[in-house]
Amino acid sequence: MKIINIEWLDLVNMECFVTIENNQKLLTFFSYGNTDLEEKINKGDFYCTMIDDIVVSKKHSCEIIPEKEGLIITGKLIDSNNGILDTEAFILRIDTDLLPGDVRSSDYISFRVKRIDLL
């Protein structure tokens, strides 16, 4: 993964938006208090916040589509118990309480997300 851009919001509290690239896909996330961004990015603990419209996808492919106020993400749920999603470019985490009741590991899901945080 390669850092493309850092937009600092607050240097004292180390708050910023970071854009990274992996497999020719871009992802922008929020980071707070992370003194070593590269190490945290390589660990890859990205958590999707402010999620809407989670559905089981009929398409069995992964994509990240930018929208005016966030992203539409489609990926393979590799662990439904822990909310781990593979988008082929990034591994993301989502709140399992938001998953539809009929979703299982290996299902493809799609949702809107307004922000992704680096934990």
Using brief descriptors, characterize the structure shown.
single chain, 119 residues, mainly beta, 1 helix, 9 strands, 6% helix
Main beta-sheet annotation: 5 strands, mixed, barrel
Strands, count: 9
Number of helices: 1
Distance between the termini: 16 Å
Give an overview of the whole structure.
With 119 residues, this protein is mainly beta. The chain contains one helix and nine strands, in the order βββαββββββ. Strands 4-8-7-6-9 form a five-stranded mixed barrel. Strand 5 and strand 6 form a beta hairpin.
Topology:
Blueprint: E1 2-10, E2 15-22, E3 25-32, H1 37-43, E4 46-56, E5 63-67, E6 70-79, E7 84-86, E8 91-93, E9 108-118
Parallel strand pairs: 3-9, 4-8
Antiparallel strand pairs: 1-2, 2-3, 4-9, 5-6, 6-7, 6-9, 7-8
